[in-house]
Design goal:
about 350 residues, alpha/beta, 2-enoyl-CoA Hydratase, Chain A, domain 1, 2 domains, eight-stranded mixed beta sheet, two-stranded antiparallel sheet, 10 helices, 12 strands, globular, binds zinc ion
Length: about 350
């Protein structure tokens, strides 16, 4: 029984250790961590099989136009409905396949696993059981995948939220992995590209989850201080604490067509405001029209668009400074210690 008293007795120091429990190799936090990729309130709508990246069906109805689609055909079309153009959801591995240059991705921090710091349960619905079920369903250990790779030949740090893992809610490990990715991007003088989809904060981690909003936003702000770009791609659906933190303070904000982007869901806003909102509110196209994002990009053009943006930002590859004193988080230079990159002609 996990009473309040026993929880208090553990102390905050132990709490952090439990949240960031590491795998069998202890606290390797550096390049040794790097491994090749191995195999809110917002309530998402029930998904059709076509929109379930982990479905094993052969023919599925499009969640938008309802037309029957061969899964093979969908795969060949980057999971975009050939009939109506709806962009179906991808899991993190599919996103990697479609966006990152083949064989270039090296995954980081695969040995950090979420735990259940609060012993959270509603009736028989326990957080630790949900984590176990999500791990089995997705073969991922968390909803955030990070690493280094190239996009159209441009070296980049990549962070991908996987909506199939507990709705990509942002908990402690999600935030920690993203923060480490931004810190390593600074050390290695690389831009950061994030692919974002989320139902918001992970309520089962309470305050620890909410803290990630400040933590991740501070991490990408330090990236900006170091003169390195953050390009965020908002995918369906992107809500809650992720939209309200690191994902929307990027230098360039792209979104996939039809992606729903907001903080609270439309129905909740209508109930509180007591007024009807436009049908297309919170779509990527609506957000573009109202200046929240910079461009809506079709999935087939995303790799090229990202490659072009990264080239224009002129990642200063010739200025990649060798690390001194070991590649550890503690050795992360402060922004003041990092040479400001030479701006490309695009910025002159
Ligand atoms: Zn369709």
């Amino acid at each position: 029984m996990d009473t309040k008293d026993t929880r208090d007795a553990r102390g905050m120091g132990h709490m952090k250790e439990r949240i960031f429990r590491r795998g069998g190799h202890g606290s390797h936090e550096s390049a040794e961590n790097e491994q090749q990729a191995a195999p809110s309130k917002f309530k998402p709508e029930p998904r059709a099989a076509a929109d379930d990246a982990n479905s094993s069906a052969i023919i599925v109805p499009c969640p938008n136009c309802k037309e029957p689609l061969y899964v093979k055909e969908l795969e060949n079309n980057l999971h975009v409905c050939p009939k109506c153009g709806a962009h179906l959801r991808l899991n993190a591995r599919q996103r990697l396949t479609y966006t990152v240059d083949e064989g270039s991705f090296a995954e980081w921090d695969t040995n950090i696993h979420p735990t259940d710091p609060l012993g959270f349960a509603i009736g028989n619905d326990r957080y630790d059981a949900k984590l176990d079920a999500s791990r089995k369903k997705t073969a991922e250990s968390e909803a955030m995948i990070t690493g280094r790779g190239t996009i159209n030949g441009e070296p980049v740090v990549i962070a991908i939220a996987d909506f199939t893992f507990m709705g990509a809610t942002m908990g402690s490990v999600y935030g920690e992995k993203l923060t480490r990715a931004a810190e390593r991007a600074i050390r290695e003088r690389l831009p950061l590209v994030t692919f974002n989809a989320s139902g918001g904060a992970r309520m089962q981690e309470g305050l620890f989850s909410l803290m990630q909003m400040a933590k991740t936003t501070a991490a990408v702000a330090r990236l900006g201080d170091a003169g390195l770009p953050h390009i965020a791609v908002l995918t369906d659906p992107c809500y809650g604490g992720v939209t309200a933190s690191y994902a929307t303070v990027a230098d360039v904000l792209l979104a996939e067509p039809g992606a729903r982007i907001g903080f609270a869901g439309k129905t909740l806003i209508e109930q509180n405001m007591r007024q009807k909102l436009p049908d297309d509110v919170q779509t990527a196209e609506f957000q573009l029209k109202h200046g929240m994002i910079d461009e809506v990009v079709h999935r087939r053009d995303l790799r090229q668009t990202l490659g072009t943006l990264l080239a224009l930002y002129g990642t200063p590859r010739t200025m990649i400074a060798p690390l001194s004193g070991g590649d550890t988080l503690e050795s992360t230079p402060t922004p003041d210690e990092i040479a400001i990159p030479v701006l490309s002609a695009a910025h002159a």
